[in-house]
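batch_manifest entry 22 of 60
target: MOSC N-terminal beta barrel domain-containing protein
source organism: Orrella daihaiensis
requested by: lab member K.T.
priority: normal
notes from requester: please return tokens only, no post-processing; we will run our own comparison against the previous entry in this batch. if the run fails, retry once and flag.
--- input ---
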Amino acid sequence: MADITGTLTQLFVYPIKSCASVALPEAELTPVGLAHDRQWLIIDDAGHFQTQRQIPHLVWIEPKVNDQFLHLSAPGLPDIAVPFAPLTAPTISVSVWNDRLLALDMGDVAAHWLDEFLEVPGRHFRLVQFDPRQARFSEQSWCRGTQAGLQFADGFAVNVLSEASLRHLNERLMELGLDPVDARRFRPNLVLDGLDVHDEDRLSSLRFMADGQVLELELVKPCPRCQIPDINPDTAIKEAEISTTLAQYRQLTFMDHAICFAMNAVVRSNVGGKLKLGMPYQADYQI
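--- output ---
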């Protein structure tokens, strides 16, 4: 018998790392997370990955995936549709934190569009797609010594947040006279009800039943937070009050006092099934 049950209330993917979220009614679970999540990456001339940490208005780029095309929208520019890169596309060496790997180049049209929108003097950018022939894994010390794949996410395939934790933060913000924030600030993939405040910290496994098969995630590590939750996804303006408020109660000693919010998870079961809004889940607490 499961320790706790609830439902999936919000479902997001982020096709391009650090660009706008895409809220979905359903998403396929793959060995490296939700389909098309962080499948694309923006790099500079040196192949280094770019995020809102360096360029806050990346959050204004809205990607959508449809019929083997990646559609890009941003203020002040015409929309473009770029076909998925074939395996025969040129490859570029890219870095994501400490990992170096080859990625598929998405071509000059996407690159010129990015340069025109980002407008960073003296710098140029390219869009790349994760090459499925490459292997990238989460840190095994958090995954019980086993391999867990991912694409261009920071370190783990899936991020899980509870409605209760977000609601608790918003209560604190409003007590300070600040506006509440929504889940987009924290870039989760799954948002769950049925949990108490920060109960996701205590979970070991999360299971969904989809078309007769069990889709299972293992929650392995609290998610340390940088300044990205401070960036308003609508204005691209940094609002440091978010981190300041979290620091009052979410600096975890066993995480070297990092501010942590939500949990990182890895895929541990059958894949190919779809997660859907309103789908019930079962979860067990860590022993």
